[in-house]
Amino acid sequence: MPTDRVVRRLAAVLAIDMVGYSRHMEADEAGTIARQKVHRREVIDPVLKEHSGRIAKTMGDGLLVEFGSVVDALECAVRIQRGIARLEAKVPRQHRIAYRAGINLGDIVIDGDDILGDGVNIAARLEALAEPGGIFISASVFEQVVGKLDIAFDNLGEQQVKNIRKPVRIYRVRLEIMADSMESQPAGSSGAVKPAIAVLPFQDMSPERDQEYFADGISEDIITELARNQAFFVTARNSTFTYKGKPVDVKQVAGELGVRYVLEGSVRKGGSRVRITAQLIDASTGNHVWAERYDRELDDIFTVQDEITTSIVGVVAPELIGAEMQRARRRDPAGMGAWDLVMRANWHAWRLTVEDSAEAKKFATQAIGLDPRMARARVVHAMCDIWDVLYGWSGNPLKSLASAHEMARAAVEIDPRDAEAHTILGVVTLFTRDFDDAPRRLETALRLNANLAFPYMWGGGYYAFTSEGAKAREYLTRALRLSPRDPANCWTYAFFGLAEFSEERYEEAAEWALKSIHQQPDFPTAHRLLAASYGQKGDAAKAEAALEGLLAVAPGTTIASTRAGVPWKDPAIMDRYLGALRKAGLREQ
């Protein structure tokens, strides 16, 4: 005899309801219903739609929602709780409405539009246990989302819940760690905030286990120095050192600390030598972003500690940003938040083409629209305004320079601790020929973050353009030492070459230009330097070929645009540079 087959599927289930519904209704029935409608219209329904949540059941004070993605379910719950908190912020505390939420991943039974089964029951039990304004999740949810979101969790252990035979391991979503960053975003904005990194205590792997103090010192110094960088959050020592001496699962640590990246390492001493290893891991994938090994003589422990710290910090920051740019490239721009839009803008900016400059400014403008206090978006926009002037891409160079100055100045005002913002303001003043203010701006950036290659690179550029070759080489060498794999090093190589050109060392200038082109084939500054170097040497064939390369990547380049864009301080060197480009065949207008 045929029987109806029960339809099941695996789904993420969100149970959410109002805390103290009866109390609120008794105190102000009409007002409670009206506020609940506002919550649905302005927060809950739009967020559910964005995350493809299907409402399976509506109660008077809550909802049961099905998701195909666990990440969507948790992101949705977090955004709802934050959105409700914002709406209720002006209401006296004793009268505020709050919601509880529980999320489970499990097998559900389909009954028309309704959903049933243990997968649903566990979500409802978790919701009942959660604090007002809080979210509880099951272990099945935690295992799927850990390391994928900038959210931390508290492990509450296994608990017996009503009508469920087996104990359920419960995790509390630690919403308070996101309060500052979430509140900085306009209501309704989407996407992730800037990433976070945790530096785990370096392990002492020495046979005698006598280097623990050295390993701890390196870890602490790295945390301190990374915290100077405003591009990401750094977890405090007190949190990361709770993992000292314990076996570590990177994904679990990332989930518990609410970080996307984890830096871990080890120290091993043998005789008078010490070997330090470090690796940066993307916790969402488990993949290594960067890894390095350092071997040193342990003559002066503090000198070695400082040197290793500087080396690691200088590399980690650009590697992390590089990983974030690649991550943003894989996302649909329509669903990106302010941080991802800035990372997409950053990626385009460093490609150094007229089309990419326009795309970078578009994404940066969108980021500013979502988060007007996103200083880094203005840094990228200002940088592209400068590129537009430097390479003749702007129809109105004065307007572009004014835009660059306004963007850079606003970035510094928004975040006076951001070394990159001060750097780009220094770059703007260099290109506006304010040779007194530019070095002050760049030195301010270095005082804020002495381990950031960016101000050293542009400091080297400043001294190249002001014909201070020795100082230029000092700064540029430091930039390369701090960040040897930085994609921006095409600029560092070009600045080395410009310093050589100013001292009439044209063969060396050409070699640096070729090195820069090898790293970034479409880099107009390097092609222009190569054409000028060969032109001044009198090598007509090579100069002509170099000019062809320049005009292929920057067809708007002329003697006039070069005079307007390249900030040589000494008029005699400017005349020599332009004369060399004329010898290569560059047209006047």
Q: Could you walk me through the main structural features you see in this protein, from its secondary elements to its overall organization?
A:
With 589 residues, this protein is of the alpha/beta class. Among the domains are: 7-183, Nucleotide cyclase, GGDEF domain (Alpha-Beta Plaits, 2-Layer Sandwich); 196-327, ABC-type transport auxiliary lipoprotein component (Rossmann fold); 487-589, Serine Threonine Protein Phosphatase 5, Tetratricopeptide repeat (Alpha Horseshoe). 54% of the residues lie in helices and 16% in strands. It has helices at residues 21-27, 29-50, 70-88, 118-129, 139-145, 179-183, 212-226, 237-240, 250-257, 301-329, 338-349, 354-370, 375-390, 397-414, 419-431, 437-448, 453-465, 469-482, 489-502, 506-519, 524-537, 540-553, 559-565, 571-584; strands spanning 7-18, 54-58, 62-67, 99-111, 114-116, 135-138, 152-159, 168-174, 196-199, 203-204, 233-234, 261-270, 273-282, 287-297. Strands 1, 2, 3, 4, 5, 6, 7 and 8 form an eight-stranded mixed sheet that branches. Strands 9, 10, 11, 12, 13 and 14 form a six-stranded mixed sheet that branches. The radius of gyration is 28 Å and the shape is globular. The model is unreliable at 177-192 (pLDDT under 50).
